[in-house]
UniProtKB/TrEMBL annotation:
Highest taxon of the lineage: Bacteria
Record's protein name: Tat (Twin-arginine translocation) pathway signal sequence
Organism encoding this protein: Paenibacillus borealis
Keywords: 4Fe-4S, Iron, Iron-sulfur, Metal-binding, Oxidoreductase
Short name of any one Pfam family annotated for the protein: FAD_oxidored
InterPro entries: FAD/NAD-bd_sf, HdrA-like
Gene3D superfamilies per UniProt: FAD/NAD(P)-binding domain
Length: 463
């Protein structure tokens, strides 16, 4: 690659921060709020013009389950955000815990208020451009680009909530990306909203979800009239009056670490949204005959890119055995949800699950060590790029667990900022867990270090 030497190597610096969080998605919002709540001077850097990531700019139409089918397990700040949004959506049952619709504009304001009330300083429309790292594995500064030009931002501790582990990877952390054998990435989805939907017809008509084998999506696919529609993936929710949100279809070979790749995918996704509208208007005219494309996501729905290599790598065995850890910072019960290759998703029934879903009351722990890149000293990672194998990433990548991980990362960062060397690996785990529990986190008592609830892997569907 050709290079260009900049004429000036000096940029203005802000060096008065204890904690800098990069990425204002669910994990970044709770990380920043928690760090500031602990008294840390906290800066949150976000590339877009709003907080919330996939639930707002990405237009994902519903939360993944907040419960283990018995009780809400993503608590603390996660539950605060969840309940605040439900309270503003009159058509949602106040006791609903799973697959609850999201109205993105309301959620944007909830996230704004969350960080503002905690005392976080937010920088919108600000991109991470470079990471300056010392020989000892310590990040020394971040170089950002915004309307203020290039600036250096310096803190004691950094939290990477970019979703792609940009801070950690650019700082030199070890990581894996996609399938370890083929390099394949899960397909992306460009979410969209249709407006002017007939509510009665939609709510009382055929179930559109692809799990319904008589869904109209199969009639659309069999017709051959809309070849751009790739497969039967079509999650949908009534997010507001006369408005249905769609998490539908797949876009393959999209790499969110490549700006050219994601730019092309966004243009393809906007075309695809219009095709879905036309197909639904023809095959479900009572519901969608007068509908229109109200909005498309300003963010691409990316399911995976990088996964850091941390002090611990969460394994399939940990998931199957419902494992608990002495240093766990939250629990997770979401199923292993890996979206397949184009061939796998276009086969009848889509990609087949190979690990059975949890039963009521079942979950596994996520240890703090999955948030600590093993070769970096003052960086934490929260969100979909934590240290885990690919199969487990298919479970821990969703918004509820990202909210819970973010709060833990924020408290840990504030604790590390008080240490003489700001080493995130040296954070006192009992103190971290105590603060999480005091703030309402779901952390059941553990019978011993790295306790494991015994399970027969064969009974739980490992094949």
């Amino acid at each position: 690659m050709k290079t260009y030497r900049m004429r000036s190597n000096e940029v203005p610096i802000q060096d008065n921060w204890d904690v800098i969080v990069v990425g204002g998605g669910p994990a970044g919002c709770t990380a920043a709020a928690a760090a500031a709540r602990e008294g840390a001077r906290t800066l949150l850097i976000e590339a877009t013009g709003s907080l919330g990531g996939m639930g707002t700019s990405g237009l994902v139409p519903a939360w993944c389950p907040f419960s283990d089918m018995e009780t809400i397990i993503y608590r603390g700040l996660a539950m605060k955000v969840f309940e605040a949004l439900k309270a503003q959506m009159p058509h949602v049952d106040k006791d609903a815990m799973d697959w609850v619709p999201i109205e993105p504009e309301k959620l944007k304001v909830i996230y704004d208020e969350l960080v503002q009330e905690a005392g976080v300083t937010v920088l919108f429309q600000t991109l991470l451009g470079s990471v300056e790292t010392g020989e000892d594995g310590r990040v020394e500064a971040l170089i950002t680009a915004s309307k203020n030009g290039l600036q250096a931002m310096q803190a004691k501790v950094y939290i990477d909530c970019t979703g792609d582990a940009d801070v950690a990877a650019w700082a030199g952390a070890e990581y894996l990306k996609g399938d370890t054998e083929t390099g394949d990435l899960m397909p992306a989805t460009h979410c969209f909203n249709l407006g002017n939907v007939d509510e009665y017809a939609y709510l009382n008509g055929p179930l559109l979800h692809g799990n319904n084998k008589t869904s109209p999506i199969y009639d659309i696919l069999r017709s051959g009239k809309y070849p751009m529609i790739p497969d039967s993936h079509i999650c949908n929710n009534m997010i507001a009056p006369r408005t249905v949100g769609f998490n539908a279809g797949h876009l393959w070979e999209v790499d969110n670490t490549d700006a050219f790749s994601v730019s092309a995918a966004l243009m393809q996704g906007r075309k695809l949204a219009a095709v879905y509208r036309d197909a639904l208007a023809e095959f479900m005219p009572a519901s969608f005959g007068s509908s229109y494309v109200a909005s498309t996501g300003s963010l691409m729905g990316v399911r995976e890119t990088r996964r850091i290599t941390g002090d611990y790598v969460l394994t399939v065995g940990d998931y199957v055995n419902r494992r608990s850890f002495a240093d766990e910072i939250c629990r997770n019960s979401y199923f292993i949800d890996i979206h397949g290759t184009e061939k796998e998703e276009k086969q009848a029934g889509g990609k087949q699950e190979v690990i059975k879903r949890y039963g009521p009351g079942e979950s596994h722990g996520i240890p703090y060590r999955c948030l600590t890149p093993r070769t970096l000293r003052n960086v934490l990672v929260a969100g979909r790029s934590i240290s885990c194998v690919r199969e487990v990433q298919g479970s821990v990548r969703v918004m509820p667990v990202c909210l819970a991980m973010g709060e833990a990362a924020g408290i840990a960062a504030a604790l590390a900022a008080r240490l003489p060397d700001n080493d995130v690996h040296a954070v006192d785990i009992p103190t971290l867990r105590r603060r999480l529990q005091e703030e309402g986190a779901y952390l059941p008592e553990i019978a011993g270090a790295d306790a494991v609830k015994p399970h027969d892997e064969a009974k739980n569907g490992v094949v």
